[in-house]
Amino acid sequence: MPSSSASRTYRAVGVVLRTYKLGEADRIIVLLTREQGQVRAVAKGVRRTSSKFGSRLEPFMSVDLQLAHGRNLDVITQVETKGAYGYGIAADYASYTAATAIAETAERLTDIGETGGAQYALVVGAFSALSRNLHPSELILDSYLLRALATAGWAPSFTDCARCGAPGPHTAFSAPLGGAVCPACRPPGAASPSSATMDLLGALLTGDWAIADASDAGARREAAGLVAAYLQWHLERGVASLKYVERV
Q: What is the pLDDT of residues 212-230, one digit of tens each?
């Protein structure tokens, strides 16, 4: 007995991470949805100028969708804009490169099994902040990266020793060991960040924007390097978009 149209369609709230051309007029849209995690779906005819919802499916847009189950890829049949973050982000190069790195990381994290509402909320929050220039774009990016890794089960420590739990603060950082390490646990080659950098990293992880916004350029550069190293260790390879991000 054929299934009803209701069972063949479903709704999802999502954010556009990336798009690919498909044929002459279609696109494959990579979405991170609140309900289904990462979804790859076809948007038919969106590259035609007559398309009713092509602009709504650009990267970094938050959307409410109706999709139909397909044999290989689902098909997007309706789109409503929830947050038009893409316009503000695209108008600023620093915000655009940060958002691209966020989208690539989100795609990687959810592709390896960490899906659902928490990761979706982090991405939408980051895109919203970037579109409104709430904080320096590089700080929004690094805060997102740390919080996304924590949500995926890799929460770093920036105060107590990540290995033995000895109370901090400590003056060494090891990505393989999980962050700050005490003198007894410090491995050869561990970084020695400044106390200002460790304070900044802790603020970015917890969302303490008063401390983060007041940080100086040196602490931001050093923190960015440690965040990138921590990200690369857990993803087992780097995020290509990070090399295009503008830093102070």
A: 999 999 999 999 999 999 9
Place of tokens 């798009």: 19
Q: Amino acid identity of 125?
A: G
Burial 172-210 (b: 16+ CB within 10 A, else e): bbbbebbbbbbeebbeeebbebeebbbbbbbbbbeeebe
Q: Compute the distance between CA of residue 142 and CA of residue 140 in angstroms, rounded to an integer.
A: 6
Q: Give the residue from 41, 61, 83 where a domain finishes.
A: 83
pLDDT at 1: 41
Q: How many domains does the chain have?
A: 2
pTM listed for this prediction: 0.92
Our CA dihedral for 190, 135, 100, 59, rounded to 10 degrees, sits at 150
Give yes or no: residues 153 and 43 share one domain: no
Q: How far apart are CA 57 and CA 27, in angstroms?
A: 9
Instruction: Name residues whose C-beta falls within 8 Å of residue 245's C-beta, 6 or more positions apart in sequence.
Output: 94, 97, 98, 101, 137, 138, 141
For residue 55, how many other CB atoms are within 10 A of its CB?
A: 14
